[in-house]
Every structure is written in C-alpha cells, then in structure tokens.
Specification:
The chain has helices at residues 24-37, 81-88, 116-123, 128-136, 146-159, and strands spanning 45-51, 57-63, 66-68, 71-77, 91-98, 103-113, 172-186, 194-201, 204-210. The chain is of the alpha+beta class and 212 residues long. The chain has two domains: 9-124 and 170-210, Electron Transport, Fmn-binding Protein, Chain A (Pnp Oxidase, Chain A), CATH 2.30.110.10; 128-167, no CATH class. Strands 1, 2, 3, 4, 5, 6, 7, 8 and 9 form a nine-stranded antiparallel sheet that branches. Strand 5 (91-98) and strand 6 form a beta hairpin. The two termini are 28 Å apart. The model has no long low-confidence stretch (mean pLDDT 97). Bound molecules: flavin mononucleotide. Flavin mononucleotide is lined by residues 42, 45, 58, 60-63, 74-77, 80-82, 139-140.
C-alpha cells in the first residue's frame, strides 16, 4: 500500500480575519451547524487531548454535548484515564474535523468538572442502556473478558430493575472546557490553507492569521 500517493486538494471555501465572527463561540456554533447540515456522520465528535502526571499526552474521541456560557461540555467516567489526566493537569485540547466542509477547529483551555446537577440533567435524558452502561463499565480498567463486562451489565440491570429512575453514578459526569485559544482551519488549494486563531487578551478575543 503506497500511502504517499494519497492526497486531496481543498478548494471549497475561504476564511478571512475580517469576515469571521468576532466571537469564536458564535463562529464555532455556525460551523457546527453547517457540519450537521452537510451530513457529517458524527458532527459533535471531537478528539480530546490530555496529559498525565509524567507529561505523557493521550487523545481519544468524545462527544460534545453542549456549548454553554462560553464552555464546551462532555461527559465521561470520572475514574477513566482521561479523568485521571485532567485531575493531574486540568487543561486540555479539543480537535474537530469536518471533511465534508474541509474544516478543522482546534480548542484549548482549562477544564473543570460540571456540577452534579448539570451532570444529572444530562444523564437522566440518556437512553436506559447508556445509563446502565455508565454504572456497569469500569472505564479504562483491564477486565478479564467480554463476558465479564456483559455480566457486570446484567448485574446492573438486575440492581435497578425495580427502580423508577436510575441515579447518577458517583463516578460519572461532565466536564467543561473554557477556551483561551481557538483556531479555525479552512482547507485551500496548494496547501495554502486559511488559519484564523482567536486568543484571549485582557478579556477580549484577538483574531490573527497563522501560516499554514
Ligand atoms: C465517536 C466516539 C465518541 C465517543 N464519545 C465518548 C464520550 O462522549 N465519552 C466517553 O467517555 N467516551 C467516549 N468515547 C470512547 C473514548 O474514545 C474512549 O475509548 C474512552 O472514553 C476511554 O478513554 P480513556 O481511557 O482515555 O479515558 C467515544 C469514542 C468514539 C469513537
């Protein structure tokens, strides 16, 4: 397989410091909306990068579940690898890739846990199997087999069989990332892509063009 021959030229659109929205969160929701309309199969999927106590970075996909009051929300197991990383270093980076629109968005900022109320407000609206899965799965831990995982799920089903509302697991909830930097990338011909970065300075957003 010759990977060196796989390449694509980008030519759909362009991006300019003056025409991009002055508020990066508004610009983000505009692009997200367009990614949804363009039929991206997982428009809210984002790569979340964290770093552990030893400085080892790790990344994985998670789903964006809201953009509220300037923050990006996602949900996970608080005992997972990512959550342990975030406890050691409460900073993270997100990256979205919307190939239909030839666009990438990068986001960096400080992370903190959402309140239990906010986590529960999201949790209680998830489908029942997802709510049970959050109780059953010791995310990021080594488990002996697929059967062992399914047995944990069955135990959880039995445990909450007679319960009307499944409670929020103490080890599960949301995080919010408050960005200090965002970058919007639009693919252009000849690898001369448009990159507009926003960074915060004295409470205001500064927009700058970066070389591709
Ligand atoms: C498209 C996609 C979306 C995902 N969304 C989430 C999510 O919202 N929350 C989550 O905990 N894991 C999600 N996962 C699973 C994570 O990528 C990862 O396997 C898991 O969270 C464990 O990561 P960790 O061991 O680094 O903590 C998703 C995976 C994919 C491929």
């Amino acid at each position: 397989m010759d990977l060196s021959e796989i390449r694509k030229d980008y030519s759909r659109e362009q991006l300019d410091v003056n025409s991009i929205h002055p508020d990066p969160l508004q610009q983000f929701t505009h692009w997200l909306q367009q990614a949804i309309e363009a039929g991206n199969p997982e428009p809210t999927a984002m790569n979340l990068a964290t770093v552990n106590e030893q400085g080892q970075p790790a990344c994985r996909m998670v789903l964006l579940k809201g953009v509220e009051q300037g923050c990006f929300h996602f949900f996970t197991n608080y005992e997972s690898r990512k959550s342990r990383d975030l406890q050691a270093h409460p900073q993270a980076a997100l990256c979205f890739w919307w190939p239909e629109l030839e666009r990438q968005v990068r986001v960096e900022g400080a992370v903190q846990k959402l309140s239990q109320e906010a986590s529960y407000a999201y949790y209680r609206n998830r489908p029942l199997p997802s709510r049970l899965g959050a109780w059953a799965s010791p995310q990021s831990q080594v488990i002996p087999s697929r059967e062992a995982l399914e047995a944990l799920y069955k135990d959880t089903e039995n445990r909450f069989e007679a319960t009307e509302e499944v409670p929020l697991p103490p080890h599960w909830g949301g995080f919010q990332l408050r960005p200090h930097t965002l970058e919007f990338w639009q693919g252009r011909p000849s690898r001369l892509h448009d990159r507009i970065r926003y960074r915060q300075e004295n409470g205001a957003w500064i927009r700058e063009r970066l070389a591709p």
